[in-house]
Amino acid sequence: AIRRMPHAWKAGAQTVLLRQQLREMEDGGTVVMSVPPAPYRCPPGPYERASLIANYLKREKPRSKLVVLDAKDGFSKKPLFLEAWSERYPDHLEWRGASDDGRVSRVDPETLTFETDFDTVQADVANVIPPQKASQIADRAGVTDATGWCPVDPVTFESTRQPNIHVIGDAAIMAPMPKSAFAANAQGKVCAIQVARLLAGQAPQPTVLANTCYSYVGAEAAVSVVGVYRLGETAISEVSDAGGISPLASLTSLIARPKQPRPTIGLARSHRKHLADALGGALGLCNARDCRLRHRRADADSGSTHRGRCDPCPVDPDCGGPAARSSRVSRP
Asked: What SS3 state is found at 158?
């Protein structure tokens, strides 16, 4: 079935297969995509995919069309996607929500048909994004509930079903925080800090996290959403007026601009430093690697090379310490 109706929700063979089917489809064909009920991984993902498929059809197969059958009426960045589809793909993309008979009840891989409550939709290429749940390892660990996802403490990410097991990312029930890679990355850092505090006998601290997501609606245009979430002792809540979506009617301002230097390395170093500093503070340790990095940067700025060790760190004598340098030699 997944060869005839690929889900393509995991990069690899399935995404390659969907691309191949789209390329081989005759101009004038119909692509049908079904979108499951929430929650699932990457909430705006189906609609970004729909945008890019429609973009491809408009460019390469102009007599073809994409029909999106959706199990719900609302979705992430909906006003932005609808605006983009209306302006860019009025003849190439049709979205049908649950109230417009978009909820799929049955599919037939042999005939490539989708059945809704009142209709049967024929496809030439079928993309079925299935309902989702946490992976098998979560079931085996006993941390899932009846929904198939993992309930956790909103501050420590510790499972509410099994002690001493912490769950982050897509598998965790963290609504209204979305199941996104950005959110999982932030949750991982905070979870590590909270675990370190627990191991040190300290109380975990409630915090605030953010999520940012960009979605392409064309080859050179994207829209965005930002959310800020307060992780309290009893619940997670979205901070009002702290996030939002791209302004409507602004797609022309989001067209890709000339490439600028990417701050990826600097951001990665910053994330590592913040995490290391937080863990060090929680456990009473010094971040020796950060000491060495600071010395290298200072050496580069001053044109000298540091030899030997720093004075001992007041926290850890073996650290190499953030104090004075012991010897220097000038570069030629």
From this structure: strand
